[in-house]
Specification:
137 residues; Rossmann fold; 3 strands; mainly alpha
Length: 137
């Protein structure tokens, strides 16, 4: 998840890092999700391994977009991937690749850039840089 924080820093997006668990700290996780929008958060990124229910809990208790990052804690992350991606109809969680924290941050930036010309411009610059690096080999 450090890569998500680093990517958000790159774009100048304020963020908060919390260590929460759907199973070990459920009250705190629910409290965070319930208050996230009122606290000024625009998107929630939730990384979890194994049973990986954190993103689902966040989505169930918040109307904010939630991005799940399956973490490879066991079974090469397949257990976390399946737990994160198989949400029931009505409670969506956007899901990135196993250990895809940087992409989760980029997706969050894209969501936050809607209606924010400065952030949209920064994202476009980033994409141009990627293209240039790719073409340069």
């Amino acid at each position: 998840m450090e890569k998500a924080a680093a990517m958000l820093d790159r774009f100048g997006v304020e963020h908060e890092v919390r260590v929460l668990s759907a199973h070990k700290t459920p009250d705190e996780a629910i409290e965070f999700a319930t208050a996230a929008a009122a606290s000024g958060h625009g998107v929630i990124i939730a990384g979890a391994g194994k049973a990986a229910h954190l993103a689902g809990v966040m989505a169930a208790k918040s109307l904010l977009p939630v991005i799940g990052v399956p973490i490879s804690a066991s079974l090469d992350g397949m257990d976390a991937l399946l737990s994160t991606v198989q949400m029931p109809t009505g409670i969506p969680v956007a899901t990135v690749a196993v250990d895809g924290a940087a992409n989760a941050a980029l997706l969050a930036v894209a969501m936050l850039a809607i209606g924010d010309d400065e952030l949209t411009s920064a994202l476009a610059d980033y994409r141009r840089e990627l293209a240039e690096k790719t073409l340069a080999g």
